[in-house]
Design a protein that fits this description.
Radius of gyration: 26 Å
Strand content: 15-25%
Helix content: 55-70%
Distance between the termini: 54 Å
Number of strands: 5
Shape: elongated
Structural class: alpha+beta
Length: 196
């Protein structure tokens, strides 16, 4: 294979990868761009103050003597609206404290072991707060962290293939070099002069 044929093959593969991976990554790019804007301007979107609701009730005392964790957690989910992954289950002499977390939402249950009286406090930052926490990957679990990692790798491949395509066209190189230099220069100025 001649050097020109190798260049043409590399350009062809870069173009194919760039086109199809860009199409695949478009929705994730829109998601992370919009939630990044929401993250930087929480006052615009009104998710900073949580909405707090409280549910009172009773859990059967037979579940509490020798705490049946699974049954208690399922009861809290079914009867008290607790959602998310269980973050902690603390057993004290007279109380049980159970915390559930999910993106943008936290449920805290306090259970009296003597009489089964239960109070569940739910703090929610709403739909926008949930999206912002998904952007951060907070309390979203391992599968969502994989989505973030795969998205980052996808964007890197898109960037590298786009850069390869740009280098392959000689008439675009000077303008592209000026644009990259200007972008790096502006970012450096902002960082060194304006970031505290």
């Amino acid at each position: 294979m001649t050097p020109q044929q190798r260049k043409n093959l590399a350009r062809k593969w870069a173009r194919t990868l760039h086109i199809y991976l860009s199409m695949l990554g478009l929705l994730m790019l829109v998601f992370f761009a919009s939630t990044g804007l929401m993250l930087n301007h929480e006052e615009w979107f009104g998710y900073s103050e949580p909405q707090v609701t409280t549910h009172d009730g009773t859990i059967p005392a037979d579940l509490l003597k020798e705490p049946n964790k699974l049954a208690i957690v399922e009861r809290l989910r079914k009867d008290f609206g607790a959602t998310g992954a269980m973050d902690s289950f603390e057993t004290e002499t007279d109380h049980l404290n159970v915390v559930f977390k999910s993106p943008g939402r936290e449920s805290q249950a306090s259970i009296n072991r003597e009489d089964g009286s239960t109070e569940v406090t739910i703090e929610s930052h709403g739909f926008i707060g949930r999206l912002v926490e998904l952007h951060r990957g907070v309390d979203a679990g391992r599968p969502w962290r994989w989505v973030i990692d795969v998205s980052a790798i996808l964007f890197l491949i898109i960037g590298i293939t786009g850069f390869t395509l740009w280098l392959a066209v000689p008439k675009w190189r000077p303008l592209g070099l000026m644009a990259i230099t200007a972008c790096v220069g502006i970012c450096a100025i902002v960082y060194f002069m304006l970031v505290p």
